[in-house]
Structures
1.
Amino acid sequence: MTIGNPETIAGLARAELSLLIDIGSAWTKAAVVGRTRGRWRIAAHAAQPSSWDEAELIATLAARLAGSADPRVSGRLGVLLADAPRISVHTPTRPGRIALAAVSSELSGRAARLAAEAAGWVVVEAVTADDGRTVAERLSALQSAEVDAWLLAGGFDAEGGEGALEMAGLVAAARGGGRSPVVWAGSAALRDQVADFFDPGVLRPVANPRPSADRENPLPLRRYLDALIERLVERGAARQLAPIGFGRAVAELARAARLRILGVDLGARYATWASADENGIADSRVVASGGLASPSLTLPGRPARIAHSLSVAIDGLAVADALQNLRARPGSLPQTDEELAIVHAAARDLLGELAANGPATGGIDLLIGSGRTIAAAPVPAQAMQVLLDGIRPIGILQLAIDPAGALGPLGALRDDEIVEGLGMLRDDVLTPLGAAVVCQGGRPGHPAMRVAVRRAGWPALGPIDVRPGQVEVVPLARGQVAELEIELDTSATLGAPRRTRRLRATVSGGAVGLVLDARDVPLQLPRRTDDRRAVLTSWREAFTREASL
Amino acid sequence: MNGVSLHRVHLPRGTLVSVRVGAAIRPDEVIGLRRGAMAPVHVPLTRPLHLQPSEVDAVLVVRPGERVEVDQPLALVEGGRAVTAPLAGLVLSVSRRDGTLLLAPLGPEQPVISHVRGRVRTIEEGALVIEVPAARLRGVGGSGDAVHGELVVGVPSPEDELRAAAIDSGATGKILVGGSRASAETLTRARAMGVAGIVLGGVLDKELRDFEAIQRRRRESGGMTGSFGILLVEGFGKVGIDRGLFTWFRAHAGRVASLFGADRLLYVYDAAPLPERRTLARVGDRVIAHRRPFQGRGGVLVALLDDLHAAQSGIPARMALVRFEDGRLAPVPLANIEATVAPTAH
């Protein structure tokens, strides 16, 4: 590869370079975009803890480029990179803090909390009428909270509700005066009454996320809270925020490729879940405490749950200590196999939680994994397993990773430039992992699906019987296309609206190959510890052994 | 960090600040007063005014959220009949079901204490910013309240565990520097003996959780007095305090310190500069490792390996060759070590 240009300025060869930089809360990722043989390519990428200085990052990138750069510029790569134009994004400097008061923890409280968390807020205090505390304790908790805004929810639209008014009064009493806005996401019938509790302009009414007992409508509240966090916390720089850039890039990829895409970026503090349809209509959820250094991972019960999902014998106490250390020093690396297993299990658990709290993941064409834990996994099969085990996307889909962390910075470009940027770097931004067929259901003793794989120029494979609880990996190299003939058992489904038994699909390969996954959705695991570990070990080995079918 | 730092004291809503910008404050000085809300009382409105509950809205002269004084009118009807506040408090709500007003009485004035020594830089909405001239140590974990007290070293060596038996009445009101861990039993005893706070190299997550659960139950049953804070300086698990830092603590025994458990901060006043930590260690640096299998161990960085090398986990990383103090030579990801810089090297 050559980076450089035969033209010279004052006798020096000129290099056309730019940098894509994503400054995360724990790790900084950088990619060098250079022109080679008339095309723009990602020529090198590197990552380092964000606490290290920029000179180190430049030196690392220069060292990566040194072997392949034009000899006329190789001696000056450090200077050229330091001076190169850059497109950068960063993790929000601090999350927005919100206090929530709602009537019920399971209905209005849950809907409002999910909407707030999906918009990137951290709920620092939540009180509900059914939380078991006295009114004085709730008032004291709200008075002690340090917040940027308040969120009130409760009461169905048709009914109003005394409980919602009581919670509004509690917030009015706790808040006192000040500038912090109060978002009313409760019964529409109570809006004017609640507005009277506050000075003019303080209350911001939004559509009720729980308008009736059997309906949820979280989107208007989430959109409002999205806009509010930009106004209050990251004024005027939303496009330079990594979660926003990531969502924009995913939307543009979906529109350009006419695909339904789901992108997940799992960082140290933030988790971003961005889905977009073939028209580029996107829906992003940004969870400020959804990353691997999140305190939620060490809440009582969760380390034990993560330990339960490990194929190796590590108890919940050791898992809790490892997760706390990850939280304390998110810029460090898992050095041992056990620590890596814990981190990957935690990543699966976080993705599972994100998937459970969002719309169904069926019907997507491409699943993209980003963030160091997924995109820089030592073996691509580990990234594939984290994505499939965590999200359990039913259907036939392609999977890829964003190894250079380039999607966020590309999404920070102007709308028209994103198209151009993604188009120019289309072969380098994503590394294909391969394809997966994930089915739900199946009967014991019967294959959940029978798959025949036809690859151009290669002998046909199969039909391969995949029984419930089994996962098989079929070799399918990057760029190689395969025609699949899938015959489903009567009790299994790929998520299609019609219960079609025979399907045909075309998939392409990647670093892992084709995964035939009949482990059900959600994953089913034996109760007995030894049996569970044996099953988990067999799955891990299925992913990581060289595909040999 | 050494020198002057800015410390932000969060003030609960309703606090009346009693210090001015520029004022010098001591750790035990009252910086404001606050009256917390107590169990609310229902004030009947409809019966004295001969109204139906649905008619209450029309006669109210206060609104939820408002603070009222004793005898202040809450509702008025034509003819001058009124319902007045039986006590000073916060109006929480008005029930259309039973026609009562919920009023939370304000409790006695409680002092708000900063727990730091310094000078008030600014007073913001809900916070006080104080310039603190002290050595500042930021920990990696913590729990509990803001406290201050005299620094006391409670273990002979940084690798030692702080035992419950080592805590006696002499530690009351002090900030105790422990070693590599303390059990929930030790922490509970320390609190019971009136220890203000504990600084540890590490603690098992479970021990900390058990201790916090015990405290929560005691708080709920109303049997807890005084404040208590914990600061972790190295990591979770059994992790000794770095030798250099431990020596510094020993040299500063007897000095006044402020510990903020939830904020993971410790200030030590009238102190020599702290040994500092620097990421991106260089060859020749004394380093400390932060992840297993070498967590908490010190050594010297003897070489940086060229290119990326796989750690045991398989993750490709920049690797440092470290000669640990026990004589072992081992490759460690550079991201997993920090250089410990003696204050004289500044």
Note: Residues 1-10 of chain A have pLDDT under 50 and may be disordered.
2.
Amino acid sequence: MAVQAHTALARHPQGTVKEIVVISGKGGTGKTSLVASFAALAGNAVLADCDVDAADLHLVLKPTIRRREEFRCGHEAVIRQQDCIGCGACLARCRFGAVLRIDSGADDLWRGAKTTCDNCADGCKRACPVKFADMIETMRAAGGGRNEHGFLIDPTACEGCGVCVWACPVKAIDFPERLSGEWYVSDTRHGPMVHARLNPGGENSGKLVSKVRETARALAEERKAELILVDGPPGVGCAVIASVSGASEVLVVTEPTLSGAHDMERVLELTRHFNIPSAVCVNKWNLNAELTERIEVQARKAGATLAGRVRYDQAVTQAQIQDRAVVELRGAEAGDDIRKVWEAVR
Amino acid sequence: MSGLWRGDDERAVRIAIASGKGGTGKTTVAVNLACVLADSGQTVQYLDCDVEEPNGHIFLKPDITATEPVGIPVPMVDEQKCTGCHKCAEVCQYHAIAVLKKPLVFAELCHGCGGCALVCPEHAIREEQRAIGVVETGRALRQGSRLCPASARQAGQADGVAFVQGRLNVGEPMAPPLIRAVKKKALADGVAILDAPPGTSCPVVATVRDADYILLVTEPTPFGLNDLKLVVEMIRQVGVPHGVVINRADSGDQRVRDFCAGETIPILLELPDDRRVAEAYSRGEIAVRVLPEWRSKLTQLWQGIPKAP
């Protein structure tokens, strides 16, 4: 899904709007604190929070929501219990472990039929994987068991593929569109912001990220802004790919730990894969000065430029608690460091 | 709802370690808990389900003995047999297969559901594995073993932590199938510790959904609190009992504690902000090895997790 978003974005001419995406690989290295400060320093940027399943930028920027839209994407399977004959075709076909058998503890799956066979044109046989064929025969001969519930779909595991819907011999599975979250266009004290909320446990985070970026891009063109600042998610998967593909520049924020170094390596491999110029900033660098140097060497070898260092400073947590960006705190030393990083990446 | 997922088979107690926010200390809690339990003689397995950025190996330094490729099944269409009926394209929810003059497969969009092969009336579709990553298994040795890993194994002294990790190929978007492959390696007895990725989306659900208990590691900051609320909302949907570990407990403010009290979520452990721990972490060292006083904290954590009768 993310790859699809990528090709869609790549087809758009980039225009003159620059888009800087802040990612990290490892979580908790300070992406959002940096982006909030950059927002304050940039003045005229459009902001986009692409960490859609654990968004935090709004906590600092206190947006006033101007527009709110539902994010509907894909479908989910729902078994109509009153119509389910308990044959188990859905369970046998689902590759995502999303079909739950409610009568757990019964000695065999196929005795779980809750009605007697009504000879639905051999639906069970059609749907049956070969290895269960004998059991199905047994079930039909036995004419069902005592189970009153049958099967249900675990919405948190359903991938929305629709195979069960197709396989159900009595068409007892509905396939409604799935409401996966919301996205918003807001105003903040440092400019307009596009953000979102993926429903907890939600699928399609990559598509929601793409929606946020598209909206931010349109907003930037409309407002004649020259810069989009993107707060990205951790990791290297779907949501990160959707966040960086087609961006003008990536800033990787890491920390001087072996985990930070390891994760930076992978995230730089990703940006190389997508041909995006990358810069690296080591946050809390003075926790381990030696490792910071090694990370910087490693970053340059991986083709990244260096955007500077930010020292470990309690003021970063204090700023968070006061709902402010670090650079908005008077006298914060980390704030001075962040200003230098901003000069390097802008 | 967790009772639903109790299989009929015997299986290890599964403790998942999650957090909405990244960098709160999931891996720290997971590897330290694993070591403390292993040292006390428990059979313990550590499974790194953060397949996008697996870090547990940095601390446990396991001797990897097997690497298996993991793929998802994607369709291969036999053009001789294909009549161009479009049924495959109609069933595919991911637009991963299209039939123009010829059938076209977009393998990177495929979720491997098998729908196309199922509906093809000509049986023209077979499935082939497309690699998305690897699962590595091995063992982290007990501290103090003087033997090299191989001889320790031979001597039967490799009684530390059983280790499993997934490693997603870089550029590959889909983590959940690999997470499921990691979890298939879970032992039949003892304690399995599942180290989850950050966030609240599908990879986290894939990790925690059939756990017996979830430890939520957070920090007492506004970001920590906000992401804790989100992850609690997610966990209530999967219906697994859970408790909170507050890391760097003396930084930040009281709001995380107030939230837990209001929602009656137990706080099982508070870990102080300790520069020695941060430094040990930065070097890839395990806190209980460096600070013996951490051992009792982790034991307290284990005792605080309610056990099934």
Note: Chain A has two domains: 2-73+189-345, 78-175.
